[in-house]
Amino acid sequence: MIEALELLANTSLWAAVLRIATPLIFGVLGALLCERAGVLNLGIEGIMTMGAMTGWLTVYMGGDLWTGLMVAALCGAIIGLLHAILTVPLGLSQHVSGLGITLFASALAYYLYRLLVEVGDLPPTIEPFLPLDVPFLSDIPILGPIVFQQTMPTYLALTSVGVLAYVLARTPLGLAIRMTGENPHAVEAQGLNPILIRIGAVVAGSALMAIGGAFLTMAAFNSFFPEMVQGRGWICIALVVFASWRPGKALVGALLFAFFDAYQLRLQTVVEGVPYQLFLMAPYVLSILALVLVARRAEVPDALMTPFRRGER
Amino acid sequence: MRLERRSHVPLYLVITAPIVAVVIALTLAAGLIAAAGVNPMTAYAEMLRGALGSRLSITETLTRATPLILTGLAAAIAFRARLWNIGGEGQFFMGALMTAWVGHSLGLPPVLGVAVLLVIGMAAGAALLAGPAYLRLRFGVDEVVTTLLLNFIVILFVGMMVEGPLRDPMAFGWPSSVPVNGDFRLPDLIARTRLHIGFLIAIAAAGVVWLILSRTVFGTETRAVGLSPSAASFAGISLPRNLMAVALFSGAMAGLAGSMEVLGVTAMVTTTMSPGFGYAGIVVAMLAALHPAGVVAAAIFVATVFVGADAMSRATGVPSFIADVIVALCLLTMLVALLFTTYRVRK
Question: What CATH code is carried by the domain that includes residue B135?
Answer without folding.
Answer: 1.10.3470
